[in-house]
Amino acid sequence: MEQRADGRVFLVGGGVGALAAAAFLVRDAAVPGERVTILEQLPVVGGSMDGAKAPTAEGGYVTRGGRMFEEEHYVCLWNLLESIPTLDDPVISVRQEFLAFNIEHPTRARARIILADRSIADAADLGFDTRARADLTRLLAMPERLIGSRRIDEFFQPSFFESNFWCMWRTTFAFQNWHSAVELRRYFLAFVQEFDRIHTLSGVRRSRYNQYDSVILPILRWLEGKGVRTEYGVTVTDAHFADAACRRMTALDVVKDGVQERIELGAADKVFLTLGSMTADTTYGDRTTVPEIIRDKRDGSWRLWERLADKAPDFGRPLAFSGSVDETKWESFTLTLHSPALLERITAYTGNVPGAGALMTWKDSSWLLSIVVPAQPHFRNQEPGTYTLWGYGLFGTRPGDHVRKPMDDCTGAEILDELLGHLGFTDIADEVRATTQVTTVQMPYIDAQFQCRAPGDRPYVVPKGAQNYAFLGQFVEVPEDVVFTVEYSVRTAMIAVYHHYGVTKPIPPMYHGLTDPKVAFSALRTALG
Model-level pTM greater than 0.85? Predict the structure, then answer.
């Protein structure tokens, strides 16, 4: 393939969308890696796909969240990872590693829902009544233009929100009742194949380690080998355009090491900007501290989008997503265990070895508490004799059932006590407390992409007439696709690169389960009876 030697490419933000764009530039658009620069304000790339030592005095490990991959829908991601070698064996691609790992460690949850009496519910009973089935059918049949900016709870009666199905669906994907009905409909259509396996999550595909170690780091190392550079500690504060319509970008304003600079763009240069961030203004706590809830946008990603949005009407409306922290936040926690006692007891209780059970949710818990016990080790350099567990709560403002405080006000020790109270393992509770490090994570915008929205709130990947720039990430519009997925960010990258560089390779089409008679029949029989 002949390389394109003309023009530089700047990627604003170092999340998976930007990393994917860099890979497609090199792999498919024949852009020399030396011409590609990633500008990242943090000291690490990967965006929300993280996995590292905890940044707290107590130490331990932390992941802010865990993306659940899926075989049928994640076609652009698999396309990318087929080209990325693993860190351990350059002959094996990351895609091949995924396939092998999930054969070795299949997901089949045996304790998807735990009830108040600590019994394991029959989660295969979705709990739909006739009205819930009718409302679900109505939402599936209604076009987005008629749904508009309405909320989920405007389409369903209270009985739907008490069903096992909603408990499992909402905790798998982190939906709240007030979120966008359009986004929920997109999820139903994109993952209709999961309807009859949502109670086991057997459709989930997991990475061998956390997603930073298994996905981000291999992509980064491959890009570095191709000459792609990442400049850390660089915050892009504004962009300038040659015309009032903002169709040609001419410069970027950046702050590096506290110094304001301007990057002038040449005639052949291009810029791909990630808009917003669902992990902006993340804060951390430990056993004795409570993570702050930041409400004043100290992270530069939202402020950049706000400045851009003031310049052109088709650059979106960021306040539709970032304007209500109380509707978009939730808190997660990572336990670093120096004794196997807790994981051994969970294995005995659930019948799932670590890595097989996916989410466990306490349906009646005030915080709507869920945990995941991953296959061990979950970090590439995890210390011998340590184990990890991740969890989160969707309702941070409600007092706990065992610790009578809102989750948002709890220390890590108190969150561990709430979990132990729900598990009921009183005989090992003292040992667990004495041998566990807790890292808590407060994320003000983690659900921002699900907020109710209207047409135009999200800009298109390539605004009409845009000559040398495109937008990436979770806050741009890709018709029919579903946000809060790695697939969404990777697809935006592929659209942007293929458009601006005239790549003729086809973009993998989205999977539509309802067009497969077997999948459609099975799923609709399960959901609609």
Answer: yes
